Amino acid sequence: MNYPLFWAILGAVFCFMELFLPTGFVESTLGLSAFVVAIVALVVPSFNFQIVVWVALSLVFIFLLRRFVPKRTPYSLQEATEARTITAIPPGQMGRVIYEGNSWQARCEDEAITVAADQPVVVVRRKGTTLYVMPESALSA
């Protein structure tokens, strides 16, 4: 078997897969490792040795890559962000608000308060896809 050709094709397949299945460059590092092993295979014919080199290089490249890929930060709401009600929010029930140009499910933080439609509200917190709001009039009083 032509091992250098095998590793070169494997490297190309991994790099090509990264285009369609983005994995944070993990597949690209596997492909890059395979290209390096294709060069090593020209000198060292042992397939078992080539596999060990490929696994080791892949782990090293993935470890080094993690330093350059930015970490994801969880989405958080800004403090006291304004929104506007689309529908009324009855006490203890759901309504809808416009927040940052999108319609969100919303509840009033104080379950004893009714919030009328088309009223400015302040987003207090978020739980899943539901925003918890308070009317501006209740906060300014």
Automatic annotation (TrEMBL):
Lipid bilayer topology: Multi-pass membrane protein
Q: What is its main location?
A: membrane
Question: Could you name the domain of life of the organism this protein comes from?
Answer: Bacteria
Could you say which residues form the signal peptide?
none
Q: NfeD-like C-terminal domain spans which residues?
A: 83-135
Entry's Pfam families? NfeD
Keyword annotations for this protein, in alphabetical order, are: Membrane, Transmembrane, Transmembrane helix
Q: Where in the cell is it found?
A: Membrane
The cross-references to InterPro entries, in alphabetical order and at most eight, read: Membrane_assoc_protease, NA-bd_OB-fold, NfeD-like_C
TM region(s), chain numbering: 5-26, 32-65
Gene Ontology cellular component list: plasma membrane
* The name this protein goes by in its record: NfeD-like C-terminal domain-containing protein
